[in-house]
Design a protein that fits this description.
The longest helix is centred in the N-terminal third of the chain and has 22 residues, at about 75-95. Helices cover about 70% and strands about 5% of the residues. A hairpin with a 4-residue loop joins strand 1 (about 45-50) and strand 2 (about 55). Strands 1-2 form a two-stranded antiparallel ribbon. The chain has 12 helices and 2 strands. It has helices spanning about 10-15, 25-40, 60-70, 75-95, 110-125, 130-150, 155-165, 175-190, 195-210, 215-230, 235-250, 255-260, and strands at about 45-50, 55. The chain is mainly alpha-helical and about 260 residues long.
Amino acid sequence: ALAVFHGGATRADLAAILGEDDAPDTPASAALDDALEALDTASLLRLDAEADRYQVERLVANWAQQWGPAHADDGYWDRLFHRHAAHFLKAARQYAAHDPREWPEHDREWENVRAAARRVSVWNETAAPAPTDAALAAGYALALRDLVRIRRPADGERWLRAGARALGNTGRAADEGWLRLTLGSLALESGNLEQAVTDFERAAALFEQASDAKGARYAAGNLGRVHRLRGEYEEALASFTRTSELCAAAGDRYGVAIGE
């Protein structure tokens, strides 16, 4: 079960996710401590005392992650993965709550956050994901939107698309709009102009629905940029005109001046 963790875990994390009672001097707490000591003695686990983290030896973790789920009884690993994702969502939200210059202070749990984000994005690629899975996908996407935009993890776009799909039927138009806006920017920078148009148009509609004037300005300006790159000058002019109107209404003189 310890192989569900990536990059190690604290004693409190282990207790929370493995479903043990972390109160001292209880049978469950003592059993967890006994198990950790036995694994340490067998060199299957090691305690980094300075960092207060337990690390599963990588070879053991790889083996357990490959073979464990196929041989566990009655959905045990599925429940464990869901507990892991729900638990580390709080750590993921630290990236949205802090300035990027402070992110290294929160990177201790990055491997667990990344593993959970990958899992919840896969769960939400089914035709009808469970409500709890959709909520997790939305939570991770919103928490990691800025990190994906700045750090560009390899599968970050997949996380954001899963979150946008999860938000599609929730009525949270502004939240989905900001995800679509970021996805459009990623598509634009990768040269996928068709996808960028799709994402920016969706963002613009969502911001209109949510009466989010700031988001609407960004969406219209970015849509104009893509139309200009595609040689669609009438559409570009219409988008930039809309941007100028929105900026003027908001008193954004800089936006009016640059036209986008």
